[in-house]
Write a structure and sequence with these properties.
By secondary structure, the chain is an all-alpha fold. Helix content is about 45%, strand content about 0%. It contains 4 helices and no strands. It has helices at about 10-20, 30-40, 45-55, 60. The model has no long low-confidence stretch (mean pLDDT about 80).
């Protein structure tokens, strides 16, 4: 019987980056930031994003809003470029 060693956060993050064909070194925070940015891009309510990210202060969530003004120069999701 093979018992797998539990993965740590770094291993899981590396595996997710590999599956997404991301060659840069990323952290769990990178994925969190990307997720929040994507939610803002697809018009989720800022209060919903705040709640999902468990931000106490609304201003912390507001750091993701500048992407709204970038138009076609905005952040792209790696999966969208396939």
């Amino acid at each position: 019987m093979l018992i797998e060693k539990p993965w740590n956060r770094r291993d899981r993050t590396d595996a997710l980056a590999c599956r997404a064909h991301i060659t840069k070194r990323v952290t769990a925070h990178t994925f969190r930031h990307s997720f929040a940015t994507h939610l803002i891009e697809v018009a989720y309510d800022i209060r919903t994003v705040q709640e999902l990210l468990v931000h106490r202060d609304f201003r912390t969530t507001m750091i993701y809003t500048p992407v709204l003004n970038q138009g076609s120069r905005g952040v792209r999701i790696p999966a969208d470029s396939d």
